[in-house]
Amino acid sequence: MSALDHGGAPGWEDRPYRRIATEEAYAPQEMIDEYLRMFREEDVEIGFRSLMGYFLTSEHPQPQRVVQRLADLGERRIADMDAAGIDHQIIALTAPGTQVLDPGFAEELATLANDRIAAAVSDHPARYTGLAAVGFERVDSAVAELQRGVTELGLRGLIANSHIKGTYLDNPKYEPILRTAAELDVPVYLHPQTLPDNAIGPYYEAGLDGAVWGFAAETGLHLLRMITSGLFDRIPNLRLVVGHLGEGLPYFLHRIDHMHGKQVAAGRYEATKALRQPVSEYFRTNIWLTTSGMPWEPAISFARRVVGADRVMYAMDYPYQYVPEEVGEMDALPYSADELRAFYQTIAQDVFGI
């Protein structure tokens, strides 16, 4: 029996499914403090300054509410879940996570975050599941911390807040980390962060570098790099979860398959190699999508049709997009009771081992 069966938001006993939100963010206060120091004292990248400058220094109440909620793993978070009707959260270290930190502090922060999340799960097993963070740049240490997080702390996946100082997970140096996730049978959650300096310029000057479009462009690119590099052919049991309904890629899969096939046949790029299956097929064998930030029936139904209904699950994107009313909208999706139960509950239970 899952811990999920022992509690949830008010009224959970009378519902035929539990609502699991699968992309919900946490930030230790120590990380928030370090980000603020970096913003004030270092020559940080444009994206970091744009994103963290907004959340950490703005006087607007919206970013202030987000930061206050990020560091809470107790009564306030659970009260927000209850108010929205969310029974269970999959909690992970928020972007940009460890990826922008010095390697030594990245390791310390990952350990701290993993211990805090594991303690919260222990205190509230019916309400929380946690993902592990690692400091990616020191690969041996990252492997050891992922193993500790899963086997000792009971965490159920790895959070990867996209690029690591401009490098991507298709780089062979990160393969031992991904192989370890596959060997431990836990998924990797690929979460957006801001574009690196060598790509962000046109987005930033138009005010499009963040969630409005830049995040999708950055993380969609990352995901495509992972697929076209042959990573899933080399690690066929690697499981990846991607939010925001796949960062727009499901809409393009037909064109991507067509153009990738032509490029392979022509030998146009050294990096473009033949894969064991079309690009689109990896969305049906290795990749799952969540609805974080995308509570829109046409997009959800399209994604379910393209990649399979068993590949799409619910997420809210708390606290960045905390909109309690969206839960009612998702309950009203034109799906059967069994389909809603899979969408909200059983797919997430299977993927994260809840």
UniProtKB/TrEMBL annotation:
Q: Which Pfam families did the record assign? A: Amidohydro_2 (PF04909)
**Keyword Lyase on entry:** yes
Q: Which organism is it from?
A: Pseudoclavibacter endophyticus
Where does the Amidohydrolase-related domain start and stop, copy by copy? 81-353
Q: Which UniProt keywords apply?
A: Hydrolase, Lyase
Q: Name one GO molecular function term.
A: carboxy-lyase activity
- What SUPFAM superfamilies does this protein's entry cite? Metallo-dependent hydrolases
Q: Which GO terms describe its cellular component?
A: cytosol
Q: Which PANTHER family match?
A: 2-AMINO-3-CARBOXYLMUCONATE-6-SEMIALDEHYDE DECARBOXYLASE, AMIDOHYDROLASE-RELATED DOMAIN-CONTAINING PROTEIN-RELATED
InterPro entries assigned: ACMSD, Amidohydro-rel, Metal_Hydrolase
Q: Name one GO biological process term.
A: secondary metabolic process
- Record bears the keyword Aminoacyl-tRNA synthetase: no
Protein name, per record: Amidohydrolase
